Amino acid sequence: MTELGQPAKLSSEPIHRVSPGFTASCLPEMALLEQLISKQTKQLKVRTLAVIDHETDNQRHQLPIYSLRLGSDDPQAPVLASVGGVDGVERIGTRLLLTFLSSLLKRLQWDRGLNHELQHLRLLFCPLLNPAGMALGQRSNANGVDLMRNAPYNATDKATWMVGGHRLSNRLPWYRGAENTPMETEARVLCDWVRDELFDSPLSIVLDCHSGFGLRDRIWFPMAGSREPLQHRADIAALIHLFETSYPHHNYIIEPQHHSYLTHGDLWDYLYHQSLSLKDKVFLPLTLEMGSWSWVKKNPRQLISFMGLFNPLVPHREKRTMRRHLLLLEFLIRSSCAYETWLPDSPMSRLRYELEAKQRWYG
After folding, report:
1. Could you give the CA distance from residue 350 to residue 343 in angstroms, rounded to a whole number?
2. How would you list the strands of the sheet with 218-221, edge to edge?
3. At what angle do helices 91-107 and 28-39 cross, to 10 degrees?
4. Per-residue pLDDT tens over the stretch 23-48
5. What is the DSSP letter of 214?
């Protein structure tokens, strides 16, 4: 797997590198993404972060990793970024973001409120980070490396055996990559993208969309490799308080990831630690973990399909999944745009949310 050339400058035109026949059969999400890009040349600014070589059936394909941007160019504007397809088998995360992006682009034609918000907010999307893994129907990239275990960052508390990442063999799931080797192209360009596009903003939030854990939908935040309290726990607590008072009937479990399991090499832990060197900047990475076991429980036949362990295979359940999480995405747009109204800005408000976070998550 190699990266070809340098990252492209912001552009309104996509670069089509994938044959339509290949995307239709192996990577329909890429076909849909490029279709969305081609129809929206004015609103969207498109950047190719990298191009991944993928060989199948004696044919070589070049699979782009796209970044898409909507909204303000002001470097001081708050930023909301959405990421999908980090684990190639979890197609539902990419589909959720493509559905949401399609809805936004259509609403921009008539929704004055959305147009006003985007004058003061920047939206970023990287809907398909691991195109080769998705084409192969596997969690890892084409090199057999689990991108969510690939950061040069070790857990400070005992990581969960195997699931938390290992260096035994790329034939086994959750392989971190060989020690003292560079990060995989996909992981590296994601980290570069976050640092370049988000770290200068006074507030930036990332939502990384996954599936495959438990019966309930979860919203995770760092840390994944430590049980230590998050430094920005007051800011997280204020955001969650805003969400739960605005939408008290939501069905998410909201917690630090280490409440479920601990891992080495988590990309968001790695980036969060780097963000701590920034003065007066708040970077809040969130992970949406859609509980795929509920789909299996309702349709046990999904057990015989590897893809069925991570994605709803019945069309009406996929549509229901889209509807359920659109509320969260809409909330993140509005709360990011209005961050000055809820972000703790006084010692008393910070103390209040510090205590709330300690009682709820770190007691």
Report:
1. 9
2. 45-56, 59-71, 122-126, 79-84, 203-211, 282-290, 218-221, 253-256
3. 20
4. 766 899 999 999 999 887 688 999 99
5. S
Q: Is 153 left (phi over 0), alpha (psi -120 to 50) or beta?
A: beta
Q: What is the pLDDT of residues 85-103, one digit of tens each?
A: 999 999 999 999 999 999 9
Is the peptide bond between 223 and the residue preceding it cis, with omega within 30 degrees of 0?
A: yes
Closest CA to 8 of 208, 193, 267: 193
| Cα separation, 124 vs 190, whole angstroms | 12
Tokens of 362: 């770190």
Nearest residue to 320 (alpha-carbon basis) of 346, 299, 303: 299
The amino acid sitting at 253 is: I
Separation of alpha carbons 130 and 107, rounded Å: 28
Helices (H) and strands (E) in the chain — how many of each?
Answer: 11, 8
The amino acid sitting at 340 is E
Which residues does residue 61 pair with via DSSP β-bridges, in sequence order?
54
